[in-house]
Amino acid sequence: MAFPKGIIELVDSLYQQGVNEAVICPGSRNAPLMIALTRHGGFKCYSSTDERSAGFFGLGIALKTGRPVIICCTSGSAGLNFAPAIVEAFFQEIPLIVLTADRPKEWIGQWDGQTIYQENLFGRHAKAFFDFETDDCSAAPLTAMAEPKGPVQINVPISEPFYPSVGEVIPKGEVGRVESRDKRVESKEYRVDFSYFNQAISSADKILVTVGQMEDNSIFETLSAYGIPVIGDATSNCGSTIAHDLLLADESIWPALQPDLHIHFGKSFVSKRIKQFLRTHKPKQSWLIHPNPIGRPDPFLCLTHVINTDAQNFIKSAEWSSKSWNTWNSAKITSLQAEFFAQPNWTELHLYNQITEKIEQESAEVHIANSLAVRYINWTLVKFIKTEVYSNRGTSGIDGCLSTAVGAAQKTDKLCISIIGDVAFQYDRNALWNQYIPANLRIIVFNNGGGGIFRNLDGAKDLPELDEFMETRQGFTAKNTAKDAGISYFSASSAAELNLDSFLHNQGPALLEIHTNSIENAAELKKYMALFKA
After folding, report:
1. CATH 3.10.25.10 for the 7-157 domain, yes or no
2. pLDDT (tens digit, 9 = 90+) per residue, 333-354?
């Protein structure tokens, strides 16, 4: 065969721009892409059978490295199975390069196998679409890395034959010819006139800083030193110890907390209360600090300015002065929490507090699944401060939470701990259907027999359809999945059976399944939340 024209050059072009990892899903139509990637010599390649899991696996790698990762699939519905990961990457601003093999254009729509319309397959959820036959695809890495970072699609029509003949030599790329290939392709030059903003900071009596999802960052300690309240969920990694979600449970104090100036860093919040608070007690000004956000996001419904720079540059360049008004004091909340958690029992809320305390003593990072898991870590007394927290909060779906953690675990020597509910685990158990389960992976599955969050939602918890159609009761456990994946399995249904030391310090990957009762969990959480209301 004559190897399909241009594919070797495409792959090498991506490599020369700093792309050096690829997650490849098996298939025939994408075989030339697979061959070009694996024989290039400059790529770390992973094989993953399930495209949905593969997409999140690649997302996890890109999350840790900051560089675009290739995810590659065959034609037809395979690309559509990437969609959940593409959407998550788009809103979480993570760079991916999606290589979708395709049928030749003359066969699209002709009732031939795997001929679907792959042009702009992901719609507005991909930053750009490149047609391999007509576009300059070398621009893909720069596009993926430009703020806001995100996924791009390169669609590659390929004709048969797909495989090289016996003895046929496939040319290799020139590995190493560009010395800067490992550097991130990004610009840090921001031009902001701070004169107006400095005046606003100086004249504001009450400043409130909120921090949405961000990577580990200690820069906000500067603001706290000035007496400016900084609040953020665990996913903000900003080190805030203010229990804002519990403090705001008492709506009678909201008027006293209303700021003149609100400044938001990072992306989304898990907490609904902070959004409700700012929507009803609007500040005079509300600023979003972001180099180039997607659209004009305004979850607080009070946005007045978008300042195009990053958090570090803004905090370093702005002129701050001490503010003594800070009434975001959660000392009373902390006291109530301490009294509550001093009487532990076998329910999820207490177990999350215990596990958080234990993980904080380790060198670890945690990947929190969506639904109740990501909320529990905001409500416990013990906080993740030194432990970096990740979560798929771009779209907040349960699909791919575990796969993201497995991908990220490839890029850290720390313990990489996935904390996940039973439904999210079963939904993504193909995350363990590969050969890349590292020794530092730890999975904690909270099994309460279904989607426990619905027992805590007003309106949902009283519906007669709750058990069958919302909570979706299930009796599966993770034991056989762990066995199939070669992962050590631990199980606990009582305090006497829970041995966190053995689990965390296991010699290889390990899974701990904690069994609880969803009705008891809901009752304990209701009792807890009642402590903080007026």
Report:
1. no
2. 999 999 999 999 999 999 999 9
